[in-house]
Amino acid sequence: MALFDLDLPALQTYRPELDEPADFDAFWATTLDETRTHDLDLRTTPVDTGMPLVDVLDAEFAGFGGHRIKAWVVRPARAITGDARLPAVVQYIGYNGGRGLPHEALAWPAAGYVALVMDSRGQGSRSGSGGHTPDPVGSGPAAPGYLTRGILDPHDHYVRRLFTDGVRAVEAARAVEGVDPARVAVAGASQGGGIALAVAGLVPDLAGVIADVPFLCHIRRAVDLTDRDPYAEITRYLAVHRGHADDAFRTLSYLDAVTFARRATAPALFSVALRDPVCPPSTVYAAYNSYADLTSGAPTEIDVYRYNEHEGGGGHRFVRQLPWLTGLVGPAATVGRAAGSGA
């Protein structure tokens, strides 16, 4: 796809005014308070995957409404040795994907980190290797997909539940045996990047935030700028429900990742693709340029992929992310070697 959004100099200074709800902070404080009336109730079951260099736990915890959320925990084998504690990365999944299979989450454990891969409730049946978490909450009339489920009231919207699950996933990671709770970061691409930014605005003491080509940023502009899914779900809904635009965009204003990003405090590493028709570059820069505006500030970096679409940096991202995060949290503690290693 050709370049279609603002040019790079304009992107670097792009700071739109958002329709931020006056009760945004109260809304989310109440949401999390209500969620925390349910015990986290983290449960983990060891899984024999035939991979002796990692321990895999099939995990679940109480998310929004106390609903059970599945996750994989993958950590270096023999990671629990004495008082050693490892850093952890909570990973959020792209739109329509699920937690998949544990062997798909080996990069961070291979580097000495604990990885917690959160399932996205109700998703995981259109791409990837599948999901395992239902969303037991219904909604009014909606377009196929997730963006218009509960779109007329922020209390009912699907993304409210998803973002809350993301916060609880951090709490679950901190409760995993052998994790250093002070060295927990969040990461994701596309929808996962949007969740990471939302969690960054709701959890004040993260070690770092990695948001690649993040979705759910500057939602109103995205709807006007792109005809690609998932944002096109909103367009299709409003094309039928012609009188619902004001209520719909009011609801979405409680869920815009830019508004969360303004409240973040942890260092952040972004990426953007200038030919991305799914998450247009100006929407990503809206979050990047506003990051930590309302707090004491935090160091931020953004990697620009001029010739890429929504795949962004692809597999090249981990090569960049690992030294960046290690520079923040320090090297992972030395863990025991696998049997037969000769050491």
UniProtKB/TrEMBL annotation:
Entries under Pfam families matching the protein: AXE1
Occurrences of domain Acetyl xylan esterase (ranges): 1-326
InterPro entries for this protein: AB_hydrolase_fold, AXE1_dom, CE7
Coiled-coil intervals: none
Region (Disordered) location: 123-144
Any one of the GO BP annotations: polysaccharide metabolic process
Binding residues for substrate: Y95
Annotated active site: S190, D276, H310
Listed GO MF terms: carboxylic ester hydrolase activity
Protein name: Acetylxylan esterase
Organism name: Cellulomonas aerilata
